[in-house]
Amino acid sequence: MGTASELQSLDKLVSNALSGQDLQEFNRIHYGRISNHELEIKKNNILFGNENHFEIAAYKFPANKEEIRKPRIVKAGVIQNSIAIPTDQPVTKQRCAIFEKIRKIIETAADEGVNILCLQEAWSMPFAFCTREKQPWCEFAESALDGPSTLFLKELAIKYGMIIISPILERDEVHGDTIWNTAVVINEMGKVIGKHRKNHIPRVGDFNESTYYFEGNTGHPVFETSFGKIAVNICYGRHHPLNWLMFGINGAEIVFNPSATVAGLSEHLWAVEARNAAIANSYFTCAINRVGTEKFPNEFTSGDGKTAHKEFGHFYGSSYITAPDGSRTPGLSRVKDGLLIAELDLNLCRQIKDKWGFGMTQRLDLYVNSLSKAVNHDFEPQVVPRD
Amino acid sequence: MGTASELQSLDKLVSNALSGQDLQEFNRIHYGRISNHELEIKKNNILFGNENHFEIAAYKFPANKEEIRKPRIVKAGVIQNSIAIPTDQPVTKQRCAIFEKIRKIIETAADEGVNILCLQEAWSMPFAFCTREKQPWCEFAESALDGPSTLFLKELAIKYGMIIISPILERDEVHGDTIWNTAVVINEMGKVIGKHRKNHIPRVGDFNESTYYFEGNTGHPVFETSFGKIAVNICYGRHHPLNWLMFGINGAEIVFNPSATVAGLSEHLWAVEARNAAIANSYFTCAINRVGTEKFPNEFTSGDGKTAHKEFGHFYGSSYITAPDGSRTPGLSRVKDGLLIAELDLNLCRQIKDKWGFGMTQRLDLYVNSLSKAVNHDFEPQVVPRD
């Protein structure tokens, strides 16, 4: 799928080029820790991954011991993947093919003890919003409560006692068949405990997603689960610090960022934004991006002077996880399906809040006051004029 | 000053380890552009820098041509430096020694055509706030309008037609001799056009700065100048996305971030935060950090279990500049005084706003509503409870 010439991994490229003291310094300054704290992966799973063409990587984020609280160890997992069959195949067939690919990776995640798993944005379909064609793509939209994706994942959630976050194209039949970009949260008993709709919708380059759905109306919910307080910031929401902030204010300990974004548009921003959010809000962030190049049956244009084309660009994967202290894992491959696992001690969130004090020093009242002025039509910016 | 064993530059380490296509891919993904667009520096200045032990680096950030607006080219400069003589010398002597070192670098900046220059946080003194001793350090505090630092820089501002931002320890004699951490803005006619006081004060590790000064009371001023709209986010304010946001809302095109921060505390965050702010707010950011290790006459403690010590840790320099499109310069040295220059086309700010639309998609009214609830004592976070 057009990835033969793509670099496999920037992180590996740099790490392989360095050694000894140099590599240590790179790790310390770049990743925020000298050791990546790699976790061992079971041999049978590595073998299974190789057979099925997906990478597995696992790391650990320890926290200090406390006297009163016990460690709160959680295994978080994220999956990045390409689509499974060409986009001109029937909708149901395309979806089922993705299901079968994902089932194998989820089985592996379960065998590695993952407690909370998040899939990529609109995982059960090609990212067809670039086409601006309504059909057949709107046929992928499905009920959050009992659509095919939810039914498929519910079963696995129960089987493996795993919380699964499923970002889909949602069809809201209760409210006039409207379509939303939605993350469905299924708990380890297979119950849909809630959903979050994408708060910020891009209109950039090929990403004219407002053709299909509006800005979300579900606020910034944090889901209290057996494995910590979790939230979902969908894709383009990662460019908005206020979006990250509200999940933090509502108490999130892990914020997943299921995305679909391509090289040429955002790749140099990718390592910056979700990581900055983890730092600023003292929580874990899990940034997930799909992989591969998706080709569509009909040509579309970008409005950027390029000729009409059928390919959207290369989804560069590179999913990674950042801790509240700003240290991060290397990214998954730029070209290959992958499962990234991190063992988190959630106690680290409050430890870092105590250390850095960003909440205490935040002066939220000042900003509420300033921002409430800024939204007014007669707002006068605080500008010291030129003489 | 204890820097012999320190790595000179992470950026150079990695760039030197790569070549050809690999280096190109690293530059594209890491820096956000394949070429660093280096600007030539005059030979006499390189020689002068070598003689006086400071590095000079200069880069360009071009923008697209527009039909209606002409390019708005501005040369911004930042200076990072160590102190000049030991901290047990008389206050006036210490300050004058720094003046003489800085004068040479400003002369060079002028000869390279710099229009706006920003010095590091509390540039005219050692960063003595770790000691928690009031004297002699409070003697460094000076009037923003006509203290020694302002008088010194006014002269250079006039001589070179340069705007100079001077972050100092301010003594406000009008308001009860209070002390502030303040950036004074001197325009190219030598006039103090205003000042900004540090909005967020750290209480972390050795940084118990609230011993000396309070959170600033000057809001988020943007200074309209002959060379664009500029603002200053002082040091620890870079951890607060709301602080960056308000400067953007008030119209800043370049935000300087004069800092003083040490390895072991923040180095892995350094490349993330000011860069993220440039991306999120579609403006240029200039991150400045001092260099070297400062040794104080008396021991102090950190409250982190370490034994009492006289050294604060290594200020790791690494000053860098980011454009609104998220591309950035390599950092200056981790150990050496330096002058970093970037030729900016300020038109890039609005071009990137038009491209990405972060302002348009920001939903500020939603956040004003949510945050105004969050500041209340009876705030109830939006939490979906566990069954």
From TrEMBL, chains A, B:
<protein>
    <recommendedName>
        <fullName>Beta-ureidopropionase</fullName>
        <ecNumber>3.5.1.6</ecNumber>
    </recommendedName>
</protein>
<keyword id="KW-0378">Hydrolase</keyword>
<feature type="domain" description="CN hydrolase">
    <location>
        <begin position="81"/>
        <end position="346"/>
    </location>
</feature>
<comment type="similarity">
    <text>Belongs to the carbon-nitrogen hydrolase superfamily. BUP family.</text>
</comment>
<dbReference type="GO" id="GO:0003837">
    <property type="term" value="F:beta-ureidopropionase activity"/>
</dbReference>
<dbReference type="Pfam" id="PF00795">
    <property type="entry name" value="CN_hydrolase"/>
</dbReference>
<dbReference type="GO" id="GO:0033396">
    <property type="term" value="P:beta-alanine biosynthetic process via 3-ureidopropionate"/>
</dbReference>
<comment type="pathway">
    <text>Amino-acid biosynthesis; beta-alanine biosynthesis.</text>
</comment>
<dbReference type="InterPro" id="IPR003010">
    <property type="entry name" value="C-N_Hydrolase"/>
</dbReference>
<dbReference type="InterPro" id="IPR050345">
    <property type="entry name" value="Aliph_Amidase/BUP"/>
</dbReference>
